[in-house]
Amino acid sequence: MTSKQTCVPKNREDHKSLVKHLIDHFTSLGLEIQYANYDKYEKPFVINRHPPDIIAFDRTKHLGYIGEAKVCTELEEQRTKEQLADFSNKLMRSGASERTHLPLFIAVPHDCNSKMIQTLKTLQLDSKENIHVVDF
User: Does 52 fall in a domain?
Assistant: First the structure.
């Protein structure tokens, strides 16, 4: 008798756990998770070319937040470069925070934090004040 096991690639599991950590981080900041690429949340919409992993909102500041999880192997991908460029340039269109750049939180495993910082430097995004790298 053989049993069939569903195998989820390790990096997919890691990505999902990073998304969960970022959801928890946003929640601890008092943000409302509006969309998330996780379990029972509604999937995020496309921002320019790609959907992020999380879209959250700060009701007191009337400011949206973008969350993106990246495993180490994704940092060199063209998709990642496009996402970082697109998401870091997103502005609020209305409300009290109109024309403010949305904070972009990038969750990475602890062991590739320095690689993420280097990726931001390569893309000339390292001086953008709205980008925050958090490692777990």
Answer: yes
